[in-house]
UniProtKB/TrEMBL annotation:
Pathway: Isoprenoid biosynthesis; isopentenyl diphosphate biosynthesis via DXP pathway; isopentenyl diphosphate from 1-deoxy-D-xylulose 5-phosphate: step 2/6
Protein name per Swiss-Prot or TrEMBL: 2-C-methyl-D-erythritol 4-phosphate cytidylyltransferase
Gene that produces this protein: ispD
Lineage: Bacteria, Pseudomonadati, Pseudomonadota, Betaproteobacteria, Burkholderiales
Residues with site note (Transition state stabilizer): 21, 28
Pfam families xref list: IspD
Signal peptide: none
Keywords: Isoprene biosynthesis, Nucleotidyltransferase, Transferase
Length: 231
């Protein structure tokens, strides 16, 4: 009857990517940005969200670099990161259960590589999702005209009406998210798409342009400028 006990909130941080597109010469989450590793910035923001009961970082098997690059992290760590982000997140959810989390608890999944996230944006997501039956994600309406490429040229212009860019955190109940990831087929690039495949419709919660994911080489300089000029 644990479902009658108020749910706790946890964060899971997938941190097992290789950072191929970023070209940083190693996993981008350990690259230095504004004096600290990218993941250290990410974890500092999560640590400031007082409603989170624990933050779990999911590393690649054999990763020994994390403690060097996040020496102040006081949360939970596990080593079962998988070949895809979805595999890494699924491993994190199993670890949460093993550590006593319950199926009706909320889980906020946040990319290690989104190091510009601010605690207040995470709180906005929590406030929006707590009363919601499904959960949701930070996201932004697409502001530009969208083109589909074909052989290096424009194949067609795509209607951008109603199109949003998904960010993280993405917040869902542990049980439904585990089940959704376990039954998902194809390219599941975020938690919301796994939940959508079960017929649910996650809530879109407006995020910030600054909460971008470090993906390409030029993203490091932009993150550096933004972090250095923050109060
Ligand atoms: N197998 C994977 C793949 C990704 N991630 C994490 O998921 C987040 C977003 O993924 P992405 O930007 O695709 O990271 P990488 O996989 O590192 O980058 P790339 O695809 O360019 O190799 C990152 O924090 C990354 O560490 C993960 O934990 N496990
Ligand atoms: C989860 C995500 O950050 C939402 O935008 C994104 O899909 C992860 O990036 P990837 O390149 O698909 O791993």
């Amino acid at each position: 009857m644990t479902e009658h006990i108020p749910p706790d909130l946890y964060a899971v941080v997938p941190c097992a990517g290789v950072g191929q597109r970023a070209g940083a010469g190693g996993p981008k989450q350990y690259a230095d940005v504004a004096g600290r590793s990218l993941v250290a910035h990410t974890l500092e923001a999560l640590a400031a969200v007082t409603r989170l009961k624990a933050v779990l970082v999911v590393l690649s098997p054999g990763d020994t670099a994390f403690p060097v690059h996040a020496p102040d992290f006081a949360g939970w760590v596990c080593h079962g990161g998988g070949a895809t982000r979805a595999d890494t997140v699924a491993q994190g959810l199993r670890e949460l259960l093993a550590r006593g989390a319950r199926l009706h608890d909320w889980v906020l999944v946040h990319d290690a590589a989104r190091c510009l996230v601010r605690p207040e944006w995470i709180d906005t997501l929590i406030d929006a999702c707590l009363p919601d039956p499904v959960g949701g994600l930070l996201a932004l309406p697409v502001p530009d005209t969208l083109k589909r490429e074909s052989d290096g040229r424009v194949g067609e212009t795509v209607d951008r009406g109603g199109m949003w860019q998904a960010q993280t955190p993405q917040m869902f109940r542990l049980g439904p998210l585990m089940a959704a990831l376990a039954s998902a087929t194809g390219n599941v690039t975020d938690e919301a798409s796994a939940i959508e495949a079960t017929g649910q419709r996650p809530l879109l919660v407006p995020g910030s342009l600054e909460n971008f994911k470090i993906t390409w080489p030029a993203d490091f300089a932009l993150a550096e400028r933004l972090l250095r000029t923050r109060p």
